[in-house]
Write a structure and sequence with these properties.
Layout (H helix, E strand, L loop, with lengths): L2 E3 L9 H5 L4 E4 L2 E4 L10 H10 L5 E3 L1
Antiparallel strand pairs: 1-4, 2-3
The structure holds iron/sulfur cluster.
Length: 62
């Protein structure tokens, strides 16, 4: 699983950071992904929950 944040859509609500703090971090007023490459297996559920919870669907999981 890979994940990215569309900075154009992100409105900085920090929900993803609360749900998956090992994967997302704030960079200024938007969230970014702080890991390189694949999401570790033990983080994938939290990342999917963050993607499902993002109010503007800015989290892209592939
Ligand atoms: S949940 Fe969505 S809108 Fe909120 S900070 Fe994360 S990416 Fe941005």
């Amino acid at each position: 699983m890979k994940v990215e944040v569309d900075a154009e859509l992100c409105e900085g609500c920090e929900t993803c950071i609360e749900l998956a703090p090992d994967v997302f971090e704030m960079e200024g007023e938007v969230a970014t992904v702080k890991i390189d490459g694949d999401v570790p297996a033990d983080q994938q559920e939290d990342v999917q929950e963050a993607a499902d919870s993002c109010p503007v669907e800015a989290i892209i999981v592939s």
